[in-house]
Structures are given as structure tokens and as C-alpha cells.
Amino acid sequence: MSTTPETDERLDAGPHSRALMQRAHAVTPGGVNSPVRAFNAVGGSPRFIRSAQGPWLTDVDGKRYVDLICSWGPMLLGHAHPEVQAAVQAAVARGTSYGTPTEPEVELAEEIVARTPVEKVRFVSSGTEATMSAIRLARGFTGRDVVVKFAGCYHGHVDALLASAGSGLVTFALPGTPGVPASSTELTLVLPYNDRAAVEAVFAEHGDRIACLVTEAAPGNMGVVPPEPGFNAFLAETCAKHGALFVSDEVMTGFRVTREGQWGLDGKVEGWRPDLVTFGKVMGGGFPAAAFGGRADVMGHLAPEGPVYQAGTLSGNPIATTAGLTTLRLATQEVYDHIGGAADVLKQAASEALSAAGVAHTVQSTGTMFSVFLCDGPVRDFNDASRTDAAAYAAFFHSMLDAGVYLPPSAYEAWFLSSAHDDEAVQTVLDALPAAARAAAAAGGAA
Ligand SMILES: *Cc1c(COP(=O)(O)O)cnc(C)c1O
């Protein structure tokens, strides 16, 4: 609890946000329902948001911000999109949950199958559930237990994946948090990202025990660290050679970096498919919906068709699937072109402002998604990402926030845009960047 409103020097949140945070602290651990919202990495008191429209957030003190988080990815069309709102309101008027199959589930599954390499898909309620279920299915399908992941890739708070590397490359992982028993991670191997030799070494040693390798299709949870050209193809090939499944986590990148996710940038072009894919964020249109899917023969092992158990009371909820379906139907190529164009403008402006202030930085992107590391590049893996200057980022973040731009309150995140980010929103960000870059320099980020 490093930032109670009373003890923090940066009392720059308005009185209503601060009062709510005080009440929240009394009844919720850390005052928040997901840790990054607490601002612990940047200091200061979080803004409580009351409403949002297009690219703008409005907090409970009436201050407006250009939103560069977009709910951590989902709001591809911006907030309160009129057609999404109308579809959701119509769905709510018909009832909110039946515990039976519904039409929007079928339509959303068809839309996902049409855009992505998956042949069949099963809906769940969060990205965590999607990766947890995909791993169970991979283990059930292969009859093997070992899972390989990369350091810095986040797949939700699944016990087996909250793991950090052991002392050597081919040694099994240690729990990444108290509460995860060693027995949950002793079947997990954690490797450095973009490191082919490490992948080859673990498959040489443990290949016949590996059920699957799971990776973010393009990591975004250590900042954006794109796969080096051919890396995902190499992973798919290595898995196939050893009878393991290649699980591509597109919870963040799916329907965001392109219409077809990261796969649209590499797999589709290079001619390979992951065995399983996980989705979330954009496909829920701002509601709790996520999915995992893949090869029909693998998905056929799932209950009730096959023996691997998986279920959910609210899975495929009609409101969530309606929001997701409406969002995806509206997510045309023009939407991605617009977001990509705005991203290019912001990437260049951020880099120019930081250069002018003499702040070491690297801007990295995949498709329409990008992040700004406050360290020299390239950033190829989690070790590199860890060199980012957290104090400089905190100063940068707060300067932007004061100027009405809501960046992620952590240096290890992507910046998210939407099709609603218009000239006014982009200009607000451009106007805020030079002073923020100078604040970063003053806080210790000078090259
Ligand atoms: C956000 C995220 C998850 C977890 O999704 P939740 O809905 O937060 O459980 C999993 N994988 C990736 C790549 C993510 O970005």
C-alpha cells in the first residue's frame, strides 16, 4: 500500500477521486480490482472515471483526458460507440443471461473463424480463463504435462504461467507469486523471448514431455516486443517436430494489431497456423468475453464432444457476445488504417520530443500497437525491457496526465488507440509531449 491519498506528495487527483480512493482502500485490497490501476508504479492517486465518449475519459472531478489505454485494448472503436450501444441496449431489453445456447454466440464464433486461423472456438469470460483452458486442452490432447513459456509474456493469472525462470535454461520454473505452489510451476519452463537457441535446447532436452509452447503472438505485456522475423514460424515448426502444440496468445493482439491479429502479419503471410489461439479484449467489445480456438481435431477433445472438461455459467453471455460481434463487424480495414495512421503520428512525435529533451528511448510496434521504452533499443526480451527508466517514465506519465492525456500507469505497457481518436485528440497528445519529455529528462532519463 505505497500510495494512500494521505501520504503521497503527488496530490494531483481531484478531491472526488481522492475521497473515493480513501473509501476504496477501506474495503478493497489496495483500493483497486486489478493492481496496475492503483498507480503504484508511477505514484500519485488514481483517477476514478465516471464516463467516456469516443477517445475521451471524464473523471469524477470533471477533468477530461485523451484515453491512450482504451480499457487496456478492448475499446477499438472508442467509448460508447453508438452502434455498439444500440445493439447492447436491444440485447439487454431481451434479457441478460439464459444459460442456454443463443444466436449471437454462433454469429461471433463464425466471425472469429472467418478472420483467424481457428476452425472452432469456445467462449469463456476472461483471457485468463482462455489460456488456462487452452493449456488444459493441450495437455489432454497430447497426454503430456510440460508447458513452455517466455519471460515477460503475460497470459493472465493462471497458476502454471505465473512462473519465473529457474537458475538454468532447461530447469523448471519457480512460482512467480506467493500462493502458487511449486507443484504448479514445476512443469513450466520459462525461456528468454526471441531466443531460438534456448527453444532448441529445451525441446532437445524435454521435447517428448512438452504438451505445448504458449507465447504472446507479439508480446505487449512487457511493452511491445515484436517477434523477430520468422520467430513465430520457427516456434510453430519446432512444436510440430516434437508433437507439441503451438498456442498463440492473441488476447491483446487479436483484432487489434490488424483485422486478423498478429497472425495477419506473420502466419498468414508465411503460410503456417498455430494449433490453438486465445482471444479476449477487443472481441468482448468492452464486456467480459474471451475465447480459445484452433484445429478442429484438437478442439474436438473438449467436452461435451471429447473428454477434456471445461465449462462456464456466463460463457458466451448474450450481452457480451452481442457487444463483441457488433464491434468486430464495425472493425473494417478503414478502422485499422485510421488507428495505424494515428499511431504513426504519435510514435514519431513521442520520439522527436524525447530526442529533443535528450531522453534515451526506443519506440517499438507491431501493426497498430506500439510502446515507448525509456531506454536504448532494441528491446528484444524481458531483460532488455527491464532497463527502461521507471523514474523517468513516472515523471513523463504525470506530466501527460496533467495535460489531459491518460497513458498506461506503467512503463511496461502498450499505448492503445481507437478509431475515435480524431485530430483534436491526437493534437492534445502532441501538445503535451514536449513538456512531458522535459519532465522525464529532469527525473533522470537523460541519455
Ligand atoms: C490481458 C491479457 C490476458 C489476460 O486477460 P484477462 O481478461 O485480463 O484475464 C492474457 N493474455 C494476454 C496476452 C493479455 O494481454
From TrEMBL:
InterPro entries (UniProt xref): 4pyrrol_synth_GluAld_NH2Trfase, Aminotrans_3, PyrdxlP-dep_Trfase, PyrdxlP-dep_Trfase_major, PyrdxlP-dep_Trfase_small
Subunit structure: Homodimer.
Catalytic activity: (S)-4-amino-5-oxopentanoate = 5-aminolevulinate
Cofactor(s) in the UniProt record: pyridoxal 5'-phosphate
GO cellular component, one term: cytoplasm
Pathway assignment: Porphyrin-containing compound metabolism; protoporphyrin-IX biosynthesis; 5-aminolevulinate from L-glutamyl-tRNA(Glu): step 2/2
Name of the featured protein: Glutamate-1-semialdehyde 2,1-aminomutase
CDD domains: OAT_like (cd00610)
Cell location: Cytoplasm
Keyword Translocase among UniProt keywords: no
Keywords linked to the UniProt accession: Cytoplasm, Isomerase, Porphyrin biosynthesis, Pyridoxal phosphate
Enzyme class, broadest EC rank: isomerase
Pfam family, one: Aminotran_3
E.C. designation(s): 5.4.3.8
Positions bearing N6-(pyridoxal phosphate)lysine: K281
Top-level taxon of the source organism: Bacteria
GO molecular function, one term: transaminase activity
An individual GO BP term: protoporphyrinogen IX biosynthetic process
Family the UniProt entry places it in: Belongs to the class-III pyridoxal-phosphate-dependent aminotransferase family. HemL subfamily.
